[in-house]
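Protocol step 4 of 6: structure prediction from sequence.
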Amino acid sequence: MPASIISPSVEQACRAITALLGKLEHAAEKISQYQSAIGQHIAAIKKARPNDWLKVVRTECDLARRQAYYYLALVSGTKTVEGQRAANAAANKRLRQRQRASRDAQSSRAREHDKNLAEQLRLAEIKITGLPERDRGAEARERGAASAARSRARDPRGPLRGLALRPPGRDRRGAAGRGQTEEGPGAQTPSPA
């Protein structure tokens, strides 16, 4: 489709864009006018109530102190909208730089901390693997004894845990023990000859 032939819908959209751009420029002028009018009203409040004008503006107009001074500066001509925007952009840039520097410092501290922990772990591993064999065996015996003590502590029978509760002279099966017969502990068992 050649560029010289434009459909009615595209032509209508172009006209709408042109009209909106004009309104946008007019709106920017209106914004500036509104801001200067606000500043003039704040100046009138400041003149009428010099001692508590900020409190009045805050409570009645719902404007913060900073905004009130901003509008006053626009009216007095000490600041322009463009100058204020540039100052805000510079302040935001400085803030982002400080935040980035803070994040970088935190991450570098974290990396340094991780390096220190890794070094401590490596030194501990060297100490453990560098122990002589007899020391490792003693450590194993100590761990076994500690484990046995823990299991005894959990057993409700306590020190009687290993003892069987049987009548004297009987084994687990209930039979007479070695060297004992049904006749008594002193009797000898006949040897099979």
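Step 5 (inspection) to follow. The longest helix spans residues 81-129.
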